[in-house]
Amino acid sequence: MGPLLVAAVVIGLIGLPVAAWLDLRDLSERMLRTQASEISRIIDEMRGFYGSDVVGRVLQADDAVTATHNYRDVPGAIPIPATLSIELGKRISAHDGSVKYRFVSDLPFKGRDPHQLDVFERNAILALRANPREPIIEVSGSLFDRHVRAAAPVVMRQVCVTCHNSHPDSPKTDWKVGDVRGIQEISVNQPIAANVLAFKYLLLYFGFAAAAGLTFILLQRRQSALVQGINKELSEANDFLAAISLKIAKYLSPQIYKSIFSGQKDVTIATERKKLTIFFSDVKDFTAIVERLQPEDLTLLLNEYFTEMSTIALKHGGTIDKFIGDALLRHAASAGAVEQGVA
Q1: Number of domains making up the chain
Q2: What is the pTM of this model?
């Protein structure tokens, strides 16, 4: 199994859960945005209902009941809608949950507990006053933990305008219907790891896929090792046979050597009748020549003589049987070929 194929399988095994994780992160982010928008809409509707159907009707029915921001200090008083939202936010955010709610403004009533606006809240108020129809949403966090903050405008209605413009603690007395007084902020935090456990069947599938892929890689690597071992043994056997054939070639004529190793002639022990020619040659007066030459010169002479005679024999299909001193014994299947070679 090639390295590229192994890398492709590994990348495929890793890429599938990573892709699912990224999709899950996007899905979680969209869910958080939708959740924040829906919570903001519900609280906005609740505050509007409270301002029109509760505070408005109470003020019209009984002058002894008043709506004020410091309703705890006034017997029989009820909170104004803004105070209701602030107190509701404190109760929601007091719990260690994933959802936080906050009602803030840069123009609070005098005497209210001070609260600091962060950069997101200040920018959201400015942006919503310029365009109250576009909610401000900020997404932050890491790959494993997503945090969404959504800011919606707090729009002044008629009951709010009447209260704020006549209230002695109001920092602004020229409010108009539709003005943005502040923002209500929904903060939702959702660890992605908590959603991953919901995909138990998908996780099991990833586990089985990874196990199958790793098993496939291991089996392929084992098979590749076996094939490499066999190829190595074949290579060693081929080298051995090549060395043997070279040695055998020195004792056979090219014609016989080629016929054997090409498969034209089987190497078997069998009786076969043929007409052969035996040729025996030696150097005339070799004893006298030996007496006159030095050993080194004699060796050169014999080597040159045997080389030329062997070349002639092999050229015409003869087989050299043996060298005897200065003599050469060879035989051939065709008498005419030998006679032609020594003529």
Answers
A1: 2
A2: 0.46
